[in-house]
Write a structure and sequence with these properties.
The protein is built from 13 helices and ten strands. With 313 residues, it is α/β, with parallel strands linked by helices. Bound molecules: iron/sulfur cluster.
Length: 313
């Protein structure tokens, strides 16, 4: 039997869980095909296919799916409802498999299992069973592969908490330490964010991100909110943002938001208010969409870094 290929779109939650997902399917003996880094063609395909109201990373995700659709035996498109107890993912992620199924012509089978860990500790066993049913693999084999994949994901997250950025971005490089807060799929996709991290480094910044803050610190700082934030990524942004606001070594904060993202507008606004009240460090709100221009962004980044350099010297 020829080896079957699972396609994994390099967008949205890939930027968080690629180690888990790829290790799992590789352990099961599948070939993996990951779509290329976001490029002009992928972005254009996404923009013309997704609904206008979608945020940029969702549009780009459509492009990644279309890029892979006719090259693979399965498309891995889990329906991510919740990845932590009493928390939820963004509603725009929940309907993605349905919207893509409705849009794609003759797509390969979707591995569109529902991941909902909000209430049930044992639910991940059901997720593994559901995947095994779709790809026709014995469940015990799936469980063994999952254990290895979880261990690899844990090691990867520890590597990030130790101060590294995901591969392709190198680690901390020295310079003026600033925090760039935003969703991994915006911060680590250089095409979506117009090369933000490299531009900041060229201006003398050392970029820290929310993935470098350990979960227990995120949780501790997120508890400063009067009410629990039930969006997982919103909680991570608030917790890491409040931590960076209080960390003396961090000289400024950039909040990177997607145009049309409800959670980003709310969380960014909250952090901006805390930063203004604390009067301790510069805070810049940067919104990106498919019309964002490089020249305008560079001007704002230069002004931001000039301000930081003046304050530090
Ligand atoms: S959280 Fe915001 S950026 Fe992310 S998928 Fe939802 S709407 Fe889009």
């Amino acid at each position: 039997m020829t080896q079957r290929t699972v396609g994994i779109p390099k967008g949205l939650l890939y930027h968080y869980y690629h180690t888990l997902w790829t290790t799992f399917f590789l352990e099961l003996g599948f070939d993996i095909k990951v779509s290329p880094d976001t490029n002009k063609k992928i972005m254009q395909m996404g923009i013309t296919s997704a609904v206008d109201e979608a945020c940029l990373p969702v549009k780009v995700f459509y492009g990644h799916v279309l890029e892979l659709a006719d090259q693979v035996d399965y498309l891995f498109l889990p329906r991510m409802v919740s990845v932590a107890r009493k928390e939820y993912m963004c509603p725009k992620l929940l309907g993605l498999p349905d919207m893509l199924r409705a849009y794609c012509v003759n797509p390969p089978p979707f591995i569109d299992v529902t991941v909902n860990l909000r209430n049930k500790d044992g639910h991940i066993d059901q997720v593994i069973k559901d995947i095994c049913t779709i790809i026709q693999v014995p469940v015990p084999q799936g469980k063994r592969a999952w254990e290895k994949a979880e261990a690899a994901q844990k090691r990867y997250e520890e590597y990030l908490h130790a101060g590294h950025l995901p591969s392709g971005f190198c680690c901390l490089v020295g310079g003026y330490p600033i925090a760039v807060l935003g969703h991994g799929y915006n911060v680590y996709d250089s095409y979506i964010n117009l090369g933000l991290i490299q531009k900041l480094r060229d201006l003398g910044a050392d970029v820290h991100t929310k993935e470098m803050v350990a979960p227990e610190i995120v949780d501790r700082f997120a508890q400063k909110l009067p009410k629990k934030m039930f969006w997982t990524f919103g909680k991570q942004l608030v917790g890491s943002g409040l931590y960076y606001l209080s960390a003396p070594e961090i000289k400024g904060i950039i909040f990177l938001a997607s145009f049309g993202c409800g959670p980003d507008s709310m969380v960014g606004e909250l952090l901006e208010r805390w930063a203004t009240r604390a009067k301790k460090k510069p805070f810049m709100f940067l919104t990106i969409d498919e019309h964002s221009g490089e020249a305008g962004m560079v001007t704002r980044l230069e002004a931001f870094m000039d301000m930081i350099k003046r304050r530090v010297s």
